Amino acid sequence: MYEREHGLNWLCFEAPNGHLSQRTRLSLSSSSTSATTTPIYAQPGGDSIINLARGDPIMFERYWRQMGDKATVVIPGWQYISYFSDVTNICWFLEPEFAKEVVRVHRVVGNAVTEGRHIVVGTGSSQLYLAALFALSPHNASEPISVVSQAPYYSSYPSMTDCLKSGLYKWVGDAQSFNKEGPYIELVTSPNNPDGDVRRSVVNKSEGILVHDLAYYWPQYTPISSPADHEIMLFTVSKSTGHAGMRIGWALVKDQEVARRMTKFIELNTIGVSKDSQLRAAKVLKAVSDSSEDAAGNSEEDESFFEFSYQLMAERWKLLRKAVEHRGSFSLPEFPPAFCTFLNRVSEPQPAFAWMKCEVDIEDCESFLQGHKILTRGGKDFGVSPKYVRISMLDRDDNFNLFVKRLSTIHL
Amino acid sequence: MYEREHGLNWLCFEAPNGHLSQRTRLSLSSSSTSATTTPIYAQPGGDSIINLARGDPIMFERYWRQMGDKATVVIPGWQYISYFSDVTNICWFLEPEFAKEVVRVHRVVGNAVTEGRHIVVGTGSSQLYLAALFALSPHNASEPISVVSQAPYYSSYPSMTDCLKSGLYKWVGDAQSFNKEGPYIELVTSPNNPDGDVRRSVVNKSEGILVHDLAYYWPQYTPISSPADHEIMLFTVSKSTGHAGMRIGWALVKDQEVARRMTKFIELNTIGVSKDSQLRAAKVLKAVSDSSEDAAGNSEEDESFFEFSYQLMAERWKLLRKAVEHRGSFSLPEFPPAFCTFLNRVSEPQPAFAWMKCEVDIEDCESFLQGHKILTRGGKDFGVSPKYVRISMLDRDDNFNLFVKRLSTIHL
């Protein structure tokens, strides 16, 4: 159990393509499917391992290359030396320039209310998730508060929540089977990771506190229906602009005391958040907003980031659906198109992950695909059946294309 | 108790000079010394509040200004997008360029052995401290492992250790009174924060695991006697180069499994560490090493960072000692000079904090100084008598000079 939850490859951060990863080796030794019958050591060229288990959003790199210097950041050695950014702000390590661009991008996209909200910046939205748990847990309770989320839920929630065996909060699992009395924290990820569903809270008890993880509520992934307006909303540049290496996320928080306690957690955890990455994130968000506004003015000089990324996602989903429908052995979720207030037209939901189900007589889809040198993350990690796997749609073009090609040749 | 340990101003990150801080207000209301008799609301000009409670190392800004573009970092929008830096490294989010400069600066300064060590990068050394606790705690034990450090100890250790009420580890306090059987973790901070002492472990039981916090083991603060050679050593740019806003620290770790588990913690906590700040830290460390080597070659074009900062610390300590000796109401620790292998001469220990004791009949020195609008951190926060206060020596020139001036006018 410990190895499963806290093992070194829980987040599937393995060796890159072309190398045999530790996770692969571990899985192989305990696999009961065809994985054991197919040698999966890396081969040169097109026969290498395709790792789509992780959600590294490098497919946006192409866009940022073509933007040239527009999102380049320059920081002299003597600037941004202090721990402090703005001591008049509850979140004293929040760079004002970053805060300004957060407000602007939400206004431009129309995906979240920022009026009357406190912004708390975090080292990625992971840290903000932990900060929210710290802020929302009663600190004098006799037992830890329950933390729940509807299955399938983000596979890192259980290990992030329980890794320190906190006496403040405890992962309880699927929100749909939760029926304990008293306070609880419910995580609502919408669109959901792994399956792309638009979500609402499901527990509906009086003492629930909601945290909305809106990492994927951007026009390239889902139609924007209206500005989200919840108590605590989490966002991250990793999925919105594709800059995972920055480790910058932000929370929009209605309650001042919650914002204060989240800030306190980040102070105790890392004494603030990299100023350099906040400055770079400001620059990148500015470029995104600029490109969106330029596009609205019908200028063709600057391609809109969201148009670019929407088209890229659309192409990929089309290719994947074709490969999957062709054989009938797998299925993908279907989503109804809807009007997107940002794109000002009907758009398709095209999640950052494909949640694929094995429709034939194979119990462990992750192991089965491993046998074909395709690394994915299995349903069990998300609290559901191993017939499901989650596949990243955000990898590099060549890797994604190779995956679709290989998937369409699998014989069952 | 909760407010004391988890209150919003534990780390003394209050409002800046010229404003009445929340901490000041809180302390005032419970103060039993002359603080209550002296109005401490901010006055214009030289009568404002001087906040030396925090260790914001902004005095090095001047050096970095005069270095011009030498430590400027430029990052295009399309670079360093991925979560990953080097997947062949245990610490897969460690930027190779940063790792290279860490090894180089330790070789140039001669303050730590890097051969045969794993480097783990962290969001400041705070995160690495927590990562070390996670890595060293037995995860199947019936009770949390004891964490101890000799008093006076770094005031944030207790709250950082206990804020999540972890079942893995627990702050127990002063190492000198620790006599429990079984495994424990001892933190050795050397030179010590707050008092500047050169430290060794004091418990000396068989099941002890040591973590060495060497944030201040640099030539401007203490004579370098030999390369430190311990199991786990923590460093940070905040105190070495003065770039606190980067939030970059590093651990040198002998044991591979410990490095792996520390990496795992950072993965669960923040999924890695800002690449932008790692790149900037690499640039800054390179400038430090270059300036040290140029200085060794007797070139006068580039001032050596450590010579510059040593001289600055020397001036400040001279001023402070003069002000303190002048009145006799306070005392400062005395340190024997010693040969510094880096400076190649006998040098003075000149800690980043002054650990000042009130020698007259005042019980609470922090409150007393607050009454004179000087904010410090009191001995209680460090596990010792309130007759002591810790004073930052790293603030801006004008703030420091104002402090010395005011201190020398205090009548007792």
From TrEMBL, chains A, B:
User: From which domain of life does this come?
Assistant: Eukaryota
Which cofactors does the annotated protein need, by name?
pyridoxal 5'-phosphate
**Which intervals hold domain Alliinase C-terminal?**
50-410
Which InterPro entries does the UniProt record give? Alliinase_C, Alliinase_N_sf, Ethylene_sulfur-biosynth, PyrdxlP-dep_Trfase, PyrdxlP-dep_Trfase_major, PyrdxlP-dep_Trfase_small
User: What SUPFAM superfamilies does UniProt report for this protein, alphabetically?
Assistant: PLP-dependent transferases
Gene Ontology molecular-function annotations? carbon-sulfur lyase activity; transaminase activity
Which keywords are on file for this protein?
A: Aminotransferase, Pyridoxal phosphate, Transferase
Subunit relationships = Homodimer.
Q: Which family does it belong to?
A: Belongs to the alliinase family.
Q: What is this protein called?
A: Tryptophan aminotransferase-related protein 2-like isoform X2
